[in-house]
Every structure is written in structure tokens, then in C-alpha cells.
Amino acid sequence: MLVRSIFAIVGLTVCLAVFGASQQKEIRHAPVKPTSPASGPEMYTTYCAVCHGVDGKGNGPAAEALKVPPPDLTKLVSKNGGKYPSDHVTSAIQGELRLPAHGSKEMPVWGCLFWGMSQGHSSEVQLRVTNLNKYIESPQAK
Q1: Which residues 6+ apart lie within 8 Å of 92 measured at CB?
Q2: How distant is the alpha carbon of residue 125 from its chain centre?
Q3: Regarding predicted confidence, which is higher, 17 or 54?
Q4: Distance separating alpha carbons of residues 55 and 60, to the nearest angstrom
Q5: Which of 54, 51, 6, 52 is nearest to 28 (CA)?
Q6: pTM of the complete model
Q7: CA pseudo-torsion sign 14, 18, 24, 29
Q8: What is the extent of the structural domain holding 120?
Q9: Is residue 142 domain-resident?
């Protein structure tokens, strides 16, 4: 009887471990696809929506695999006293902030990646960051 109980517990533990492992989401890194620096929507869809969601609410398909949930980008104004934190968002995009997601490197530092895409043309990097920032500002909750 004791042996059957032990086997039942071990079997249950193995089943739970296998089931739990199959439920664990995994982040797979892929090469960065170049986009137009003039299109904030295209950059957002290509680079941000996978974690932040198409609607910006932090519900993208990769969000549940992250250790730190992506923030709801539609609430930046309401969390900042009614003002859009443009400088803060720019710093986050460029990787200049010490944010939990940045610290774990789950969120790519887009400033560095934009620099590589733009082959060192600082004006193109700035255009990318500015247009992406403007697009992120657009869906703010009222």
C-alpha cells in the first residue's frame, strides 16, 4: 500500500512537471527586421506589439513569457498626472532607464538596434525614436 502511494505521488509529480513544462512559454529571439524610420505604426507593430500588444495594453503574445509584465502603454498619461511623459518614453526606447524589463534584458534596447539599422546615421535614429514615441502617445486613455 505504501509503495503504491509513493508511486502514485511520484507519478503525479512527474505528470505535473511535464504538464507544467509544456505550459511554460519561451522567448525566442529573432533578427530585427528593418522598418521605415518615418512610420511609427509600422515600427510599433514590428518591434513593440509582440509584448505590449497591438492595443498597447501589455497583452501581446509574448507578454506571459516575460518575468516582468510589459506596462500598459495606454495609461502613461493617467499615471503621469495627465501629461504624456515623452522624455521618459524616449529614454526607455533608447535604453537609458533602469527599468525592471531592461535590467533583465527582456526588452531590447531599441536605441542600439536602431543605431545598427541606421548604419550610424544619428538623424535616422532620432527620427525612429521620435516617430515611435509619437505613435505610443496616440492611444492614451482619456
Answers
A1: 99, 102
A2: 20
A3: 54
A4: 9
A5: 51
A6: 0.73
A7: positive
A8: 2-137
A9: no
